[in-house]
Design a protein that fits this description.
- The protein has about 210 residues and is an all-alpha fold.
- The chain is built from 5 helices and no strands.
- α2 packs across α3 and α3 packs antiparallel against α4.
Amino acid sequence: MEPVRLPDSNLESIEASVRRLLDQSAEQARQLDSLSALPDPSPFAAFGMPGRAGMPGMPAQAPPPEPRPILELEGEEYEDEIDALTDWVDGFLMDTYGAEVTTAAPWCKKWQDHDDVVAWLHALWMAYQQHKDPEAGLSGMFVWHRDFLTHCLAHVRAPGGPLSACMTDPDRPAHRRLPGPTPSARSSNPATKDKPEHGEPDQAAG
């Protein structure tokens, strides 16, 4: 049998169709690569369209909860947070940065009973989480050491600080909460409650 010969016009048409198929295949491969690299798993993102959460009728993604000071928490929420804070303080902070316990640097094994110490250490922990994040840049941890760690420990473990009546010798554990200041004389004096506000005329004076 003799080979079949197609007119040149038919060959050009077939070649054009093959090129179109190859171009379409390459475009699909690029779209698949972009889908795998995008943080948005929506298949619409590769075409410049919003994901499902950004489309009408679709629920929007809830923003992450804002951090709250630990002393504003209550009940189980507080207990969960103090447990997590204790793990960080005992397992990382004091294990790494806890200098020797002396009269110049007291400590307390029951530091969770000191509200001001809890507040300071929780704020330090939140700052640590922020500054170790890659978005904080290469200097993030240096800033944490300089602006947060040193200042916090210098206050919490100061000779006259909140733990000064607690353990000053590792061989003699101690815990005592120092009494805070009493209410001011003005707030405890009933006579001041009947006085006019600052700037208001005193009716009795007329």
